[in-house]
């Protein structure tokens, strides 16, 4: 006899749905703001993207741009643990948006801005919980 156990958990996952000017989805993914690996990946992706922006050549061939795009997208997807097509399936990372930003930089900004308050709040809650449970051993 097989048993099926169904439970509903409040995971705290943040759901991101990035849309274009018509409201059509161009990216959709979920992230866990309490996952230390993802947080480290976000920091690394932001730092690597900044470094790439500072060292980008003023004049580049289409091959250079394609390689730059692939590297930038990989840094973001690998760092955040997101499948490539969930973020860059419709719009390549090096697409220049109407405000002049690269799409990849926009994605990082949206994620970082949304995660900052969650990270701060959850880090405080984790520290309180750790203090509570370690206080009896002092």
Layout of helices and strands:
Blueprint: E1 14-19, E2 25-31, H1 36-55, H2 62-80, H3 84-88, H4 103-134
Antiparallel strand pairs: 1-2
Describe this structure in words.
A two-stranded antiparallel sheet has the order 1-2. It has four helices and two strands. The protein is mainly alpha-helical. The model has no long low-confidence stretch (mean pLDDT 85). The chain has helices at 36-55, 62-80, 84-88, 103-134, and strands spanning 14-19, 25-31. β1 and β2 form a beta hairpin. The chain is globular and about 65 Å long.
List keywords for this structure.
single chain; 138 residues; mainly alpha; 4 helices; 2 strands; 55% helix
In percent, how helical is the residue content?
55-70%
Radius of gyration, in angstroms, nearest whole number: 19 Å
Low-confidence segments, given as residue ranges, are: none
Oligomeric state as shown: single chain
Compute the separation of the termini in Å. Answer: 49 Å
Order of strands in the sheet with most strands: 1-2
| Number of E-state strands | 2
Mean pLDDT: 85
> How many helices?
4
**Estimated structural class:** mainly alpha
Quick overview:
The protein is mostly helical and 138 residues long. It contains 4 helices and 2 strands.
């Amino acid at each position: 006899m097989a048993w099926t156990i169904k439970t509903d958990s409040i995971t705290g996952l943040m759901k991101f749905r990035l849309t274009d000017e018509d409201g059509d989805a161009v990216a959709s993914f979920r992230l866990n703001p309490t996952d230390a690996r993802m947080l480290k990946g976000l920091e690394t992706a932001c730092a690597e993207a900044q470094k790439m922006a500072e060292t980008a050549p003023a004049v580049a061939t289409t091959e250079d741009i394609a390689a730059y795009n692939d590297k930038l997208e990989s840094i973001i997807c690998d760092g955040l643990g997101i499948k490539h097509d969930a973020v860059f399936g419709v719009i390549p990372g090096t697409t220049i948006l109407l405000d002049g930003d690269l799409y990849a930089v926009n994605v990082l900004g949206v994620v970082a801005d949304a995660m900052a308050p969650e990270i701060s709040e959850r880090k405080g809650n984790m520290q309180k919980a750790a203090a509570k449970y370690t206080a009896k051993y002092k």
